[in-house]
What we know:
Aminopeptidase, 30% helix, binds coenzyme A, alpha+beta, eight-stranded mixed sheet
Amino acid sequence: xxxxxxxxxxxxxxxxxxxxxxxxxxxxQIYYPTPEALRSRRNLLTVxxxxxxxxxxxxxxTAEYYPEDTSGGVCSCMxxxxxxxxxxxxxxxxxxxWLGERAAGLGFHxxxxxxxxxxxNVAIFRRCGFHVVAEEASTLFQxxxxxxVTEVTLxxxxx
Length: 159
Ligand SMILES: CC(C)(COP(=O)(O)OP(=O)(O)OC[C@H]1O[C@@H](n2cnc3c(N)ncnc32)[C@H](O)[C@@H]1OP(=O)(O)O)[C@@H](O)C(=O)NCCC(=O)NCCS
């Protein structure tokens, strides 16, 4: 059954937290945020909205999005998470597509993702229509044993 994508509601908050924790278990095998990353996330919290993916009444995915810059052209997606049992079945693609339509409707010209190359997610996001616009050694993230990782920025043009 195809996932229904919608904005988060109060009743979803616990399930969203659990989904994000599950995604973090995957990601923490590869990288951790530096203290600078944690500070920049705290600065974003007032402008984030959340979307969820639901199948048969259960949440199987979520993502957050926020305007990346004050000029208002770029909407960024973060904390994209699909429950491990539902990965590889098109849920991530559906969430990103929904976000693209919503961001376009809000007047943004680009949907942006930041990801760590070592996760292997760049190939997935390319399949979803994003292209790489920047790639650099990360100042925000590092491996569990302190080695540097590569941060990749990918854009999806809207409209
Ligand atoms: C990354 C993530 C959100 C992707 O969601 P998903 O539901 O598994 O992705 P989808 O099934 O929608 O796949 C999207 C596309 O990528 C393709 N794809 C999946 N895995 C791939 C891989 N390893 N290499 C290349 N393409 C891949 C799929 O085939 C699909 O393309 P298609 O529709 O043309 O066949 C999910 O795996 C996840 O939650 N991972 C853990 C947390 C995480 O990494 N979050 C992202 C942080 S930036």
